[in-house]
Design a protein that fits this description.
With 202 residues, the chain is α/β, with parallel strands linked by helices. The chain is built from eight helices and seven strands, in the order H-H-H-E-E-H-E-H-E-H-E-H-E-H-E. Strand 3, helix 5 and strand 4 form a beta-alpha-beta unit. Helix 1 crosses helix 2. The radius of gyration is 21 Å and the shape is elongated.
Length: 202
């Protein structure tokens, strides 16, 4: 007769928390928890310290939405960034993906998701209004829309374009290299580089 495995309450809580992470189901969470326990000194305790430090010191940038220990973040404050362009992304993971490719040296704006009627996500639920304000600043000449090539991503891109049609900025969209249905965080650096260099008016 099959009997459910029994863990101590602390271990059970650890497994439940790990199983909430993307890509980790209950089995993977159990294996991860077991590895952490077996390697307390080399992984578990340093990880615990790092998590506490991140929870204490890392926050969203009030300007662009990036995650950093400083506000404004290092990208917004960087003196070597091109301040004439703002690249709009859905999530911080997309920002990191573009930074990893090294193909873009301008500023960013994280809107925090996409418009979705099915999920009840409207313009007021996203970080779009501050983007419109930033785009109207004197130095900004181009807004690059780098939302994912999904239906919701396209809808969001059209909405942002409509909001910016009365401004003097040029609105462009990532082009070649981003497949329909693709997400930036899963693309390789070469694909991201091709997409950024081949952007076109939207």
């Amino acid at each position: 007769m099959y009997r459910k495995a029994s863990y101590g309450s602390e271990l059970d809580q650890l497994i439940q928390l790990l199983s909430k992470l993307p890509g980790l189901g209950p089995r993977s969470a159990r294996r991860a928890a077991l590895q952490l326990i077996k390697r307390k000194d080399s992984i578990m305790r340093p990880l615990s310290t790092a998590l506490a430090e991140v929870a204490e010191h890392v926050n969203p940038c009030s300007t662009c939405g990036n995650l950093d220990t400083s506000d404004p973040c290092q990208i917004c404050e960087g003196d070597r960034r091109d301040r004439t362009t703002i690249c709009v992304v859905e999530d911080v993971a997309d920002l990191w993906a573009l930074e990893r490719s090294g193909t873009y040296r301008g500023l960013y704006h994280v809107i925090g998701g996409t418009l979705s009627a099915l999920d009840g996500v409207g313009p007021d639920d996203l970080n779009i209004s501050p983007l419109i304000e930033r785009a109207r600043e004197d130095l900004v000449t181009e807004v690059i829309i780098a939302t994912n090539a999904t239906v919701d991503g396209q809808t969001t891109a059209h909405y942002i374009t409509d909001r910016l049609k009365d401004s003097s900025v040029t609105v462009t969209r990532l082009a070649h290299g981003v497949p329909v249905g693709g997400e930036l965080d899963y693309l390789d650096d070469g694909t991201l580089t091709a997409a950024m260099s081949s952007r076109r008016p939207f």
